[in-house]
Write a sequence for this structure.
C-alpha cells in the first residue's frame, strides 16, 4: 500500500488532528494538490484518502502550511 517504503499511512482525521485544523481543510488541501494523498476506492458518503506520514513530516518541517 505504501509503495515499498514501509511508510505509515494516516487518515484525513489523523492529519487534521496533528495539524490542529478541520477535516474539511485537509480534504481541500488534497483536492487542490497542496497535500499529496493516496485515493482509496470510494465507499460511503466521502472519498477516502490516506496521507503518508513522511508527507506530513515534510509539511511540518516547512515554514508554512498550505493555504
Amino acid at each position: 500500500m505504501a509503495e515499498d517504503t514501509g511508510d505509515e499511512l494516516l487518515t484525513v482525521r489523523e492529519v487534521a488532528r496533528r495539524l490542529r485544523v478541520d477535516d474539511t481543510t485537509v480534504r481541500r488541501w488534497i483536492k487542490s494538490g497542496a497535500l499529496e494523498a493516496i485515493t482509496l476506492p470510494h465507499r460511503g458518503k466521502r472519498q477516502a484518502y490516506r496521507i503518508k506520514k513522511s508527507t506530513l513530516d515534510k509539511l511540518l518541517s516547512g515554514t508554512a502550511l498550505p493555504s
